[in-house]
Amino acid sequence: MTYHNPRIPEGINSGRQTPLRDLVVLGAGALGLGFGLLVTLMLIGSWLAPLIPFSWERDLASAINAQDLAGETVPSPRLQVIVDDLANAAGLPDDMILTVHIMDSDMVNAFATMGGHIVVTRGLLEALPSENALAWVLSHEIAHVENRDVISSLGANAFFALGAMVLLGDADVLDELILGGGGLANLHFSREREKAADLEGLTTLVAHYGHAGGYAEALGTLKTYAVLQELSPVFFSSHPDLDDRIKTLDREVDRRGWRMETTEPASDWSS
Fold this sequence. Notes:
By secondary structure, the protein is α+β, with helices and mostly antiparallel strands. The chain has 10 helices and 4 strands; from the N terminus they run ααβαβββααααααα. It has a 4-stranded mixed β-sheet with strand order 1-2-4-3, sandwiched between helices.
């Protein structure tokens, strides 16, 4: 018997797709895997960070925020009294110490940063029409601190930055993504966390004053100045729509049967 070596057909090892298309598919798959890894790391960081004791967070904040807070803000003994009273009304643990600062800025804004530091701008203090409105804003930020939203957001950013550093090979991305250009970076929270802070802030407001007056004034002021400062929708992109926030709180007031009474007049909180 004679054996004949058959001729191999041309293109037997080539796919039907072009090499360029194969490259695009592989590249898209790699990008998808990388994105999935970053999202997973963010979720892990968001879950792990709040496990850090608050005292450790405050020590870390002292190292990160000290220079920024000293250079951009001033303390306010009068505001501190209100914050302490609201913290008691919210039932914060004794070790969860809060410190309020005033930032000399025309921007109408307030935010919580690491270690229980709450920053309120001069523009917000001048814009809010009543003490109760200010108290609801402060209560909202206190809720972010109590729920550990700040450290959770920072943990997500840190793990994202770590993954990005591994994928990109650029160590500088850690500073850029963790600190956001400074210790006073205004961290953005999810809409769910913002909604929770709204509702908890309302509960604290009622616990302190005995009625719910003030939240609608605060949100109405934020809505007005968001338009004037051309911040909508970008500035509030992580927040629920302001009208929806008011409606949600209105429904909660009706459900709980809370009273709406006259609010306390605004005063000079800068001292």
